[in-house]
Specification:
- The protein is an all-alpha fold.
- The protein has a single domain, classed as Homeodomain-like (Arc Repressor Mutant, subunit A), CATH 1.10.10.
- Helix content is 72%, strand content 0%.
- The protein contains 7 helices and no strands.
- The protein is elongated, with a radius of gyration of 16 Å.
- Keywords: Transcription, Transcription regulation.
């Protein structure tokens, strides 16, 4: 998990990662899912989306810049996955979060 947290912006090869920890890639996937409740790919996707959301909110990145910064190659795919995870597209989510922050204080 620490490796994912440090390298979430990169394309991670599960076979290479499994070799690093001296187990098979299928065993790595099983252990990872047992610990996190998610597949390695799902975990990486959530890290990317959460960090992109933070960049847009705190650093005022636009969605395309945030997507590229966290490792997405396609802003369209990023927008789709962002809306799936957070319930609305990035621009709409940022407007709501910033309005909520004005009313309720610190959000993220």
């Amino acid at each position: 998990m620490a490796y994912f947290n440090e390298h979430y912006t990169e394309k991670i090869n599960m076979d290479d990662l499994a070799e690093m920890v001296f187990i098979s890639s299928s065993s790595l996937r099983q252990h990872f899912k047992k610990i996190t409740g998610k597949s390695p790919l799902q975990y990486q996707k959530e890290l990317r989306l959460q960090n992109a959301r933070r960049l847009m909110f705190k650093e005022n990145f636009d969605a395309t810049r945030a997507a590229l910064e966290v490792g997405y190659e396609s802003p369209t795919q990023f927008n789709r996955e962002y809306a799936r995870m957070f319930g609305e597209p990035p621009l709409k989510d940022m407007k709501r979060l910033k309005a909520d922050e004005m009313h309720f204080g610190r959000i993220i």
